[in-house]
Amino acid sequence: MDESNEDNQLDTLSWEQLLPSEWLAPMGSGLLWQTCYHVMLLPPDVLSSNPIYFDLNNSMVILIEGQLEYVSLQELGVVSKEIPEIKYQISGIELTTQGNYLTIIFPLEDESSQCEKEAKDKVDILTGLLALIFGDNIVYKKYFENVINIKNNSRSVSSPVIKVPSAIPPPDITRENVSLIRDIYVKLNSIPIEKRNRIELSLRWFSEAMYSSGPDAYIKFWIALEAVGMVNTSDIRPLKKMLAEVYTITTEEVSTKFHIGRLFNIRCAIVHDGKKLPIQAKILEYLQVLYKDILFQVLDIPSKHAVESWIKEYKLDLVSLLDINS
Fold it and tell me: Phi/psi at 175 (nearest 5 deg)?
């Protein structure tokens, strides 16, 4: 480590001096994305008060000891019950605690939501690679994520991605649904442990998917379906069979009515073909109601015909909705 990084160390703590000059050129956007992780259990002789840095995919990865400036986002909460509005405020400039940090910095074209999403995706890829090679403690905990404007020497922070409450149906709190949740838990406690473990695993993936978006959410919802209703990763016949039982139709009718094959093809296109498909919110909703039908069938709970009700409510054409794998 010492020999390979001897030329990559400075006598100062400032990470700004490590950035390529073209990133700081006045004709550019002047925007830099910075994500910082707290590094744990770093041997004391690794840094020796000097940064270690390297370029990776047009990103500067800097391992540094000291304190870093940042701004944070403080959630003020929901300010209205009738028309839900969640507000945040940005803190003033703060300093991290004294410690070891890994910071990832790269140019940002603009502050649009699309650029922010691409930046976060890029960070996730780099973080996975860094953890794979250096170990998990190199990115132990995300400390902050800022956008730096070098033209006016300011920092900003993006608000987290949240669902628009008005785009989601109100909570359906009824005595019937309270009894239904209790029934589900009774069923879970009465089935063989292996089956229960699969269902609980599927529910954890379902929960993860709810707080994700795009292809990531799609894959998580699919894993939830796979865990609860499939015998392996490629045989979708059990899903079709269960839906046929739910709706008292043939598996051939299931294929033409619910298009499970199209859903599976989208999953394969994302996972195996590396396609970045435009996964609309309604596609994710379809996976949610499909999961509900399958889970109820697995637990032998009377069906709510969730998929059919959802299609009728929104007057959807599934063929058009799922025609994205091109």
Answer: -60, -35
Q: Which of the 8 DSSP states describes residue 98?
A: S
pTM of the complete model: 0.81
**Which pLDDT band holds residue 81 (cuts at 50, 70, 90)?**
low
Q: Which contiguous run of DSSP H or E holds residue 155?
A: strand 154-156
State the pLDDT at residue 298.
96
Tell me which long-range contacts 250-253 makes (C-beta under 8 A, separation of at least 24).
Answer: none
Other C-beta atoms closer than 10 Å to the C-beta of 108 total: 21
Q: DSSP label at 160? A: P
Query: Sheet containing 60-66: which strands, arranged edge to edge?
Result: 52-55, 60-66, 99-108, 31-38, 141-149, 154-156
Q: Which residues contact 234 (CB under 8 A, 6 or more apart)?
A: none
Domain boundaries, the chain: 6-156, 174-321
**E strand residue ranges, 67-149:** 69-70, 73-78, 86-90, 94-95, 99-108, 141-149
Ramachandran angles phi, psi of 65, nearest 5° = -110, 140
- β-strand pairing of 99-108 with 86-90: unpaired
Distance CA 272, CA 266 (A): 10
**What is the tens place of the pLDDT at every residue in 214-272?**
999 999 999 999 999 999 888 999 999 999 999 999 999 999 999 999 999 999 999 99
Strands 141-149 and 154-156: antiparallel
